[in-house]
From TrEMBL:
Name of the protein described by the UniProt record: Amidase domain-containing protein
Residues covered by region (Disordered): 149-187
Provenance organism: Fusarium oxysporum (strain Fo5176)
InterPro entries: Amidase (IPR000120), Amidase_dom (IPR023631), AS_sf (IPR036928)
Superkingdom of origin organism: Eukaryota
Length: 187
């Protein structure tokens, strides 16, 4: 609630945040829509955050900075009237969800270098809405076997960031991306 009694969330300007990567998903969407930040500027800020932090967190299975920036430039070129509701929002994808332009390897040597020919429905919907699919996050092998990546909880090294969706959870918790896809099948 703001000081006028309205429940409408007020968007902080960047002076309220020291870096763009600190913005929430809803904040950055509003800033992109208002023309206050470009998709390229926000993506560059996230990539800087990842470079600074991921050696410790280890959230990423696949990240191609050049592809991210190329996609960000293309998104910035789309006229405002043609933009989708998630235009420019970076979203990470767990490495068991198909992406046609990135490897899907299930954290398994059996699928090393595997590039699907199509996107999963969830990824296709996000792209259609204008999201920037940022990269692939770590998972346990086949999202089922407990042998997995050495992803660390970015806030407490004595705690786990979870199991098979650990990369997605850690990337969001560490402000490396504002949103990520994960999965849950075991309860």
């Amino acid at each position: 609630m703001n000081n006028q009694g309205s429940h409408e969330e007020e968007l902080p300007d960047l002076e309220g945040h020291s870096k763009p990567w600190e913005l929430t998903a809803s904040e950055v969407l509003r800033k992109i829509q208002a023309g206050e930040i470009s998709v390229q500027e926000y993506a560059e800020s996230l990539l800087e955050r990842i470079k600074a932090r991921d050696e410790d967190v280890k959230a990423w299975a696949y990240l191609d900075e050049k592809r991210v920036m190329q996609e960000a430039r293309l998104l910035d070129e789309i006229p405002k009237k043609d933009r989708g509701p998630l235009h420019g929002l970076p979203i990470a994808v767990k490495d068991v969800i198909y992406t046609k332009d990135m490897p899907t390897q299930f954290n398994s040597p059996l699928y090393d270098g595997h590039f699907p020919e199509t996107d999963a429905a969830s990824v296709r919907i996000l792209r259609h809405a204008g999201a920037l699919i940022f990269g692939k996050t770590t998972t346990t092998e086949f999202a089922a076997i407990h042998v997995g990546p050495k992803t660390h909880n970015p806030h407490d090294p004595l705690r786990t960031p979870g199991g098979s969706s650990s990369g997605s959870g850690a990337a969001v918790a560490d402000s490396q991306v504002p949103m990520a896809l994960g999965t849950q099948t075991g309860g």
